[in-house]
Every structure is written in structure tokens, then in C-alpha cells.
């Protein structure tokens, strides 16, 4: 199954967001893969600072792994540059697929 969601970057942090994701922690990448998450991309709308994420799932969503220590640490690491919930998880809004072409 493929899912998409959006998140919000705080203004002025696009370069920092990319830098942090270019150096994604190996243990976080492994956790995602171990939980069936693949083909994961995040795009940035630079006019609105909206992040658009899409991922292939064969199990959990990346947003469902918040009980793990490494994900909680990642959320804390990213909280200063993203809009977050009280638990530091990114505010994530699911998006409905309205078109697909193979």
C-alpha cells in the first residue's frame, strides 16, 4: 500500500531539514525498512514550507513507530524546525489519493 501525508516546516529551515535528512541515522533507516516502509520520499513546497511525504508500506506507517526510542529521539531532534504535537511528533495530515497512473 502507498500512503501520502503532509507536514509543515518552520520558515527558514529548508536547508537544515535537507541536511538532517541527508544524514539520516542508520538505525532509523533500518527501523523503517524492518517495518516494511520503502520507496519513501519527502518533497518540499518552498512557497508554503509544506512537506509532502509518500511511502510504500508493507506493515506499519512511519507515523506508527512513535513508541520506539529511536523515533522519539528523531522527533526531538527535528522539533525545532517543524510544527509538532505536544509529544514532539510532527503534525502529520494524511492525504487522500485521487489519481494514480502506473
* Percent in helix: 25-40%
Uncertain runs: none
The mean pLDDT is 94
Strand count? 4
Q: How large is the radius of gyration?
A: 13 Å
- Proportion of beta-strand residues: 25-35%
Q: How would you classify the quaternary structure?
A: single chain
Termini, distance in Å? 14 Å
**Physical arrangement of strands within the biggest beta sheet:** 2-3-1-4
Structural class: alpha+beta
Largest sheet: 4 strands, antiparallel
- H/I helix tally: 3
What is the N-to-C order of secondary-structure elements (H for helix, E for strand)? EHHEEHE
- The shape is globular
Task: Please give a structural write-up.
The protein has 102 residues and is of the alpha+beta class. Helices cover 27% and strands 26% of the residues. It has helices at residues 14-22, 26-34, 69-78, and strands at residues 2-8, 37-45, 50-57, 93-95. A 4-stranded antiparallel β-sheet has the order 2-3-1-4.
Produce the secondary structure layout.
Layout: E1 2-8, H1 14-22, H2 26-34, E2 37-45, E3 50-57, H3 69-78, E4 93-95
Antiparallel strand pairs: 1-3, 1-4, 2-3
Compose a concise summary of this entry.
The protein is an alpha+beta fold and 102 residues long. It has helices at 14-22, 26-34, 69-78; strands spanning 2-8, 37-45, 50-57, 93-95. A four-stranded antiparallel β-sheet has the order 2-3-1-4.
Which tags fit this structure?
102 residues, 4-stranded antiparallel beta sheet, 3 helices, globular, alpha+beta
